Amino acid sequence: IQMTQSPSSLSASVGDRVTITCQASEDISNFLNWYQQKPGKAPKLLIHDASNLETGVPSRFSGGGSGTDFTFTISSLQPEDLATYYCQQYGNFPGGFTFGPGTKVDI
Amino acid sequence: QVQLVQSGAEVKKPGASVKVSCRASGYMFKNYGVTWVRQAPGQGLEWMGWISAHNGYTDYAQKVQGRVTMTTDTSTTTAFMELRSLRPDDTAVYFCARYRVSRSGSTSFDYWGQGTRVTVSS
């Protein structure tokens, strides 16, 4: 299963609403996670199963979609949200936890 | 608190092997798996495989199948990833992460190690 993300990068202002899309090459139901990776750091799980916010993650982050088309939204961009965001599918177990190519978010 | 602490940076020559360790603490090790993800310089994330700490079941990505072996030592709550026949394009930061599966089958990588830089160069 191949994953695409758009845009590959974006620049936005503090307080802006930011939306990233992720598309799977075949139906993966809701088997999709979103990760945030800040520069020089390990990734961090933000959302699992397309729309479930991980415990402790700020509510300005949200996710949606099912099947092949998914969205990730930051409702009000904060300076600490500077990072690259990756979607990841796990729809073809075993053997596949494909990550999308990432979306770099600049403030 | 859950922590995954990885071994230090490695420099290897092409054709050699590398073994990276990932020591887990703060949770019941055998109730989860450990997955490995690598990131080449300036590139995205690439899943390599995972191992169940409960029964040793492994599942490897096709790209590294045959060159990678993942193991665990439950007595020390440590996971290991060995990659053989190293090539320059194996140069990357290698991350371990806790592999979480819920009762519903939801699967995610919820805690990550700090990463281990492996450089392959002659």
Describe this entry's structure for a reader:
The complex is a heterodimer of chains A (107) and B (122). Chain A is an all-beta fold and 107 residues long. In chain A, 0% of the residues lie in helices and 47% in strands. Chain A has no helices and 10 strands. Chain A has strands at residues 3-6, 9-11, 18-24, 32-37, 44-48, 52-53, 61-66, 69-74, 83-89, 103-106. A 6-stranded mixed β-sheet of chain A has the order 2-10-9-4-5-6, with no helix packed on it. A 4-stranded antiparallel β-sheet of chain A has the order 1-3-8-7, with no helix packed on it. The N and C termini of chain A lie far apart (31 Å). Chain B has 122 residues and is mainly beta. In chain B, the strands form 2 sheets. In chain B, strands 2, 4, 5, 6, 9, 10 and 11 form a 7-stranded mixed β-sheet that branches. Chain B has a 4-stranded antiparallel β-sheet with strand order 1-3-8-7, with no helix packed on it. In chain B, a hairpin with a 5-residue loop joins β9 (92-101) and β10. Chain B starts with a strand and ends with a strand. The interface between A and B is medium-sized, with 25 and 22 residues.
> Uncertain regions of chain A: pLDDT < 50 for 5+ in a row?
none
The tally of helices of chain B reads 0
Helix content of chain B: under 10%
Tally of individual helices of chain A: 0
Portion of residues in helices of chain A?
under 10%
Biggest sheet of chain A, in brief? 6 strands, mixed
Strand content of chain A: over 45%
**Which segments of chain B are poorly predicted (pLDDT under 50) over 5 or more consecutive residues?**
none
Estimated radius of gyration of chain A = 13 Å
Which whole number gives the mean pLDDT of chain A? 94
Strand content of chain B: over 45%
Average pLDDT value of chain B? 96
